[in-house]
Amino acid sequence: MTTSNSLVYLIALPLLGATILLLAGRRADKWGHILGTLMPASSFAVGLYQLSLMLGRSAEERPVGQKLFEWISVGSFKVDAGLLLDQLSICFVLLITGVGTLIHIYSISYMSHDKDRRRFFAYLNLFIAAMLLLVLGDSYLNLYVGWEGVGLASYLLIGFWNQKPAYATASKKAFVMNRVGDMGLSFAIMIAFATVGTVSFAGIKEQVDQTSTGALTAIGIMLLVAAAGKSAQFPLQAWLGDAMAGPTPVSALIHAATMVTAGVYLITRSNFIFDAAPTAQLLVVIVGAITLLFGALIGTAKDDIKKALAASTMSQIGYMTLAAGLGPVGYAFAIMHLLTHGFFKAGMFLGAGSVMHGMNDQVNMRKYGALRKFMPITFVTFGLGYLAILGVPPFAGFYSKDMIIETAFNAGGIKGILLGSATLLGAGITAFYMSRVMILTFTGTKRWDEDAHPHESPWLMWLPMAILAIGSVSSGFLLSRGDALVNWLHPLFDHHEEHKHHLLQPIVVSGLALTMVAIGVAIAFFKYSRQEVAAIAPENVSVLTKIARQDLMQDRFNEAVFMRPGQQLTQVLVKTDEAVIDGTVRAVGQLAMSSSSLLRGVQSGFVRSYAALIFVGAALLIAGIWVVVQ
Amino acid sequence: MEFSSPVLNYTLLSPMLILLGGAIIGVLVEAFMSKALRPITQLSVTIGSLILALVQVWRIRNDQSLTAAMGSVVIDGPAVLMQASILIISLISILLIADAQQFTALAASLPGSEEERHALQSGNQVTEVYPLTLFAVAGMMLFPVSSDLITLFVALEVLSLPLYLMAGLSRRRRLASQEAALKYFLLGAFSSAFFLFGAAFLYGYSSSISFSGIRSAVVGGSGNDVFLLIGISFLSVGLLFKVGAVPFHAWSPDVYQGAPTPVTAFMAAATKIAAFGAMLRIYYTVFANAQWSWSPMLIIIAIITMVFGSLVAIAQRDVKRMLAYSSIAHAGFLLTGIIALNKAGLEASLFYLFAYGITTVGAFAVVTLVRDSAGEVTDLNRWKGLGKRSPWVAIAFATFLLSFAGIPLTSGFIGKFSIFSAAYESGATSVVIAGVLSSAVAAFFYIRVIVLMFFTDPVEDGTSVEIPSSLTSITVIFSMIVTIALGVFPAPILDFISNLATFIR
Hints:
Largest sheet of chain B: 3 strands, antiparallel
Strand order of the largest sheet of chain A: 1-2-3
Helix content of chain A: over 70%
Strand order of the largest sheet of chain B: 2-1-3
Largest interface: A-B, 28 and 36 residues
Radius of gyration of chain A: 29 Å
Order of helices and strands of chain B: HHHHHHHHHHHHHHEEHHHHEHH
Number of helices of chain A: 24
Structural class of chain A: mainly alpha
Shape of chain A: globular
Distance between the termini of chain B: 31 Å
Number of helices of chain B: 20
Number of domains of chain B: 1
Number of strands of chain A: 3
Distance between the termini of chain A: 67 Å
Strand content of chain A: under 5%
Oligomer: heterodimer
Radius of gyration of chain B: 22 Å
């Protein structure tokens, strides 16, 4: 493999930024945001440079590596801290640094009234560094460091306004639920080390053939748990809605475009494991299918614009997970949807932030309405993102989502039909709830609070939105033209079982999808545009709506299944601990204390007894040696 | 009788000569310079000599010689490492000693006398502690590089005599301080007698006072084994007294408590390096082939020392006494490095000595900061809630305690881990088991202090934390950085030690 010494700069630059901003303290308040924006921008430049180098090489020689230092060396267990930049990670590097830079620029203006803006930029830089480490690590252990790093940064940023107790709780919830996923990853690493004997990607890939399917399945399932935790997939999805407590740029960067897609990255990166463990792969598909419907349903009932978008994120990542679970044919489409989603969802979140900015931080869509005239740029950029997520040709989502629907149908047999139907249904519901967001926010009559004076946001905010909107329009076309992305990623995946049997022709799939979308839009139109929208959410609604408003009971479920029994278990454990373990410890301590007091008696303070002690000691020495020698 | 002039390698001896020169200049300054200028001059001379000596040690780091001083001094890798450690420890200790508040204004006056009061009021502080320190450091430097019994004994006395005096210099509780000094002196003299007696037996056994002569007699095995055994035993008594191993430890809690805290810091850290340095050289080179005779004895002493030190420390209510017993326990851990008798053991011991020395100075430096109107507060009950009142000082102390306890990410963990694994490799399993168990017991009382500082509500009794002087701050911060750095990135220093740690014979 080619080596390069410049990979480390990708990570080092934002890390340096975070360090400077945190250490410099208030002194950096004046220029902190500028430095904080320059760092990911320079990383982006390094990423582009690396891409240009990669394009100049033949497909097999494109991956580059860099060994940083020997990290752990205990017996036969050796891990080097090393970086790996290949066709897959470069996609993420450019997404993270590119979208990241835009969101930094947006935040300059969005956070300008916050006295802790410098700290905010420090955390953002920290996040970028950790996320880059996550996608650049060349072993699961290195990835794990980045994985924990983004978790930490996410926790800090969700709770950035932690003076509000609800926000602090939200960040804790996200942190704890992420821990469950993280345990999955650490178990996966331990199983990999115990059975395969290495934790590097290349090392495991080489030895997949010699490893038992059972072990691979176990690793795969644990990786899926990890991915579910980080990417808010069923059943670890409940934290994402609460994570919206963070400042909106955070939601755009971390909880839409990058961090939550880390699970998809993990599964795609581990393709050699899942390809050899069909059971685990099947579970991935199932989790993806459930989540895409689950998220979509929640999205229909949310009045909080950010929570509606969060539900949509959950659902869209469900699509990616499903695609990644379909094996070699699906990986590239998962990544393609991930990239296009990165553009349009980040753009829509920034749009939501712009709306909130103009509406005194109001998030309830029932208090919006008719904003189209007052915020034309936001309306247009948001609208382009909307068309992209719906999958209207020729916008980005059309290319990426249709591919996934098509691949799902072609998975074969009853499985294919079930998965295909789920994705189609999801597309319809998506069209409904996204249209609802559009209609409630931008059209209709004013339902504003009295002190609201909506206005367009400053250029520092709309410029990033506009650039992302361009991405929402064109990225799908560009990535799928001549199968560009599929061919680019092709060398990484194992294609030996490629057999395409078409259940449905692509044109049929597109037709079906568009029909579903049209139905969804129509329902939303009749329900929200034709009728007066209540400024306060109506109470006399169907049971289904009520359940959906409560996030499909996910918190109730967590409480009943995990929290209550968990609390009881901990109480029992605490009692056992007090009685048995503490009791033993106390007894040992008591014993030590009493022997200690006894031995203290030797220390009389008299020189004569000390001298006698020395004398006796010497005598015993001689006697002892005598015995030994005899 | 023909008399030939001695051939000395001045380059190799220069670190010790610089210190002795500095000490003599210090004596002259004390005698002739005006009182106002003395403290700053003394401090500069002392620090200057120490730094110069350290530079000189660095320059000779790759030299080896058995004949640096007519066969009486040997310079090799371990010698350089020990001397460098002693110098670095002395440097950070001297920054504590520079705090005149700790020392009596006029040591020659009777406690509580008119004379003493007059000296205090006039602000005329005598500064003989600086040349005394330099003499002691010179002795400590010579101790582990001596290669015959006479030089070894001279070095022992050169390092001990100034320490006896320094222990009696405390400004507060002078009677206790003088009592400590006298105890230390009497017991030191007593153990020196054992040492000399042992040396005489060794001469009787081998007809030689040089290490190489005794070594070849041991290898040849021709002499009278009874003489050898008595010689080893009595010599060991003298050395074990210096390191404070049980049952030759009784002086150390009293002296640690009575002596001025900066002196305690210096004594606890630097003396240990010197004494263990000499022990390592003697057991690894001279007596290596008689391992059958001394190994069981050292194993028993090591186990008793660790267990005794850790157990008795639990019941201590005075922070200085607690640290004294902790130092006894650590002497036991360090003895396992000698018992290992392999290269890994030597490397681990050298690392442990350095790391432990730095941490010890840091811990005592923190003790000097916790005061009330009558001076230092060493009663642990009055340290309650220190973490709430002075978080940084408490965090520093907690770091040192964690290192003493051998918690990972501190230098103490790396030291304990490497020294125990070296002993385990050599087959001394019983010591390792006892070591790990008593480490666990020891962790109890270290953690208890941490709990006391951070999780107990403070008592309102006027205990306050002195704003550290810049000199004390340097010591505390440096010790903290080294303690953590050696715990997180030990590889460079371990490699450095590993390259140098081979005794030449």
